[in-house]
Amino acid sequence: MVLVSKPKNTTGGLKAIFGLLTVVTFLFCNYIITSSNESNSLSSSIQRLENTNRDLEKANEELKKKNENLVYDIDELRDANEKLQNDLRNKNQELESMSRQVQQQQSEATQVSNAVRQKKWDNWPAVAYEQVGKPLVFKGDSFYNHARELYFQPQSNGQTLFDEFLNVYKDRPDPVNMCGIRINHAMALFLAVKHLQPSLVIESGVNQGVSTYFIRAASNTTKIFAIDPKEKPICDQGERWIDQSNLTVNYTGENFTDILDLDWKSMVDKKEIDPDSTLVFLDDHLHAFKRIASVMKLGVRHVLVEDNYKNGEGATRLDRNSTPKQMLSASKWKKEGDWLFNNIVTYAEFPPLIPPIMAKESPEPKKSRGGFMVATDLNEDIAHPILRPDLNEDDMKLFKDAVAKLDLDPTLVDRNSYMQFMNYNQFCHIEFLPMPPSLLYQ
Ligand SMILES: *[C@@H]1O[C@H](CO)[C@@H](O)[C@H](O)[C@H]1NC(C)=O
Ligand SMILES: *[C@@H]1O[C@H](CO)[C@@H](O)[C@H](O)[C@H]1NC(C)=O
Ligand SMILES: *[C@@H]1O[C@H](CO)[C@@H](O)[C@H](O)[C@H]1NC(C)=O
Ligand SMILES: *[C@@H]1O[C@H](CO)[C@@H](O)[C@H](O)[C@H]1NC(C)=O
């Protein structure tokens, strides 16, 4: 349009053309500059994109790697998990089996503790309970519970203690000993002295002196206090056997001093006696329960009671109302029984040598005052016998040998043979706790 404008003046026209050219050039240059700027920014954008792409690829690569690692980790974790599960299962099984073992041990322990609280024997009706109020009570583990082993196991000399006892018994000073001890009680006394080896035996109730004889036969070094108010034996037994040893002090007849009236404090102070190693043998038909408690307070550790009658039995009024067996068994003496049971270490009744069934041919009737076994006894309240000749041939041989040695009759038909083997009063051993010296002789 400018070009077709009227050329009025050539100089003016040139000027115009020149101006036009300048403008065009300017525009062109401007265009060139602009487009070159734009091309620059495009390639840098591409560059950036490429960089970004590389970065992304790199990141992707890394992710891939990480992913691989993760996959690898997951596998590892799975393996570890499986292993843990296995371990856990095994541990669980172990725990279960341990818990089963613990349960079994607990039930065994209960059985053992029941077994300790309760003693049963094969083919024997009695059950011994470590509990008051039962027909047969025991406490702890007295050596009387091991009478069979102690009497029948061969000793170093090849003999048994029973062989030794039979020799002693055969030579007893009074073969009948009408109102005194026979085989069962002599065995109980002999074993106690042999086993306990007391420094002193105090015998309360000497009578014929046969029990003194067994004490001395069991130990020739122990001191004996032989206590009896009477000068002569009862039951027409003739002369008393008196120990010739000066280790036996005769508190008899005019020199009688009751066991509780002895000057304990003075004797202990002078070290003439040691209550801790003193054995008291009660055979005096006095109040056994009170005397047991009294000698306990003197610091004596071991007591034997000979006339340990059952509930409702007894030769004297006191025998019927004071024996440890009565106190430990009868509900009417529950307080006494509880006190006794809880203040002693052991209580055990010496078992009879043979069961009463061995006297099945004897015509002897049951004595209401007790003291003798008969074949019809129920045996629910006496300990299992040492020998069972009724069940065992070897025991039968031991019994027959003993009977032959003592010139007695194995059928126990004659009165003396019957009395020798069936006289049984639940002779017992009681052990006390050691008495603290601060409580003695105050
Ligand atoms: C005392 O007893 C022991 C054992 O029983 C015996 O070996 C000893 O000979 C006895 N001593 C006397 C003097 O009797
Ligand atoms: C006890 O009496 C007997 C017989 O008389 C005698 O041998 C013994 O020595 C007496 N005991 C004491 C300690 O005197
Ligand atoms: C006791 O008897 C023994 C031997 O029998 C004798 O050695 C001792 O001296 C006697 N003791 C007393 C105090 O008489
Ligand atoms: C009583 O003891 C005294 C002194 O030891 C003695 O002389 C006397 O013979 C004893 N009496 C009897 C019966 O043993």
Explain the overall architecture.
The chain is of the alpha/beta class. The protein has helices spanning 10-117, 147-152, 161-170, 183-196, 210-218, 264-269, 288-297, 324-329, 334-342, 393-405, 415-422; strands at residues 118-120, 127-129, 200-204, 223-228, 248-252, 278-282, 302-305, 344-349, 428-432. The model is unreliable at 1-8 (pLDDT under 50). β3 (200-204), α5 and β4 (223-228) form a beta-alpha-beta unit. α4 (183-196) packs parallel to α5. The protein has two domains: 50-120; 139-437, Rossmann fold (3-Layer(aba) Sandwich), CATH 3.40.50. The strands form two sheets. A seven-stranded mixed β-sheet has the order 5-4-3-6-7-9-8, sandwiched between helices. One 2-acetamido-2-deoxy-beta-D-glucopyranose binds at residues 250, 252-255. One 2-acetamido-2-deoxy-beta-D-glucopyranose (NAG) is lined by residues 242, 244, 246, 248-250.
CATH topology of the largest domain: Rossmann fold
Radius of gyration: 54 Å
For the record, the CATH class of the largest domain is Alpha Beta
Q: Whole-number average pLDDT?
A: 90
Order of helices and strands: HEEHHHEHEEHEHEHHEHHE
Bin the helical content: 40-55%
Return residue spans where pLDDT drops below 50 for at least 5 consecutive residues: 1-8
The secondary-structure class comes to: alpha/beta
In brief, what are we looking at here?
This protein is of the alpha/beta class and 442 residues long. It has eleven helices and nine strands. Strand 6, helix 7 and strand 7 form a beta-alpha-beta unit.
